[in-house]
Amino acid sequence: MAQSTARLERYLEDELGECRSEDVDRRLDELGALEAALGPSRVETELDVLSALANETRLTLVRSLVAAKGELCVCELDALVDVSESAISHALSTLSEAGLVSGRKDGRWKKYRATNRAVALVTVLDGGIGDE
Question: Which of 82, 120, 126, 132 is the most exposed place for a label (fewest CB within 10 A)?
Answer without folding.
Answer: 132
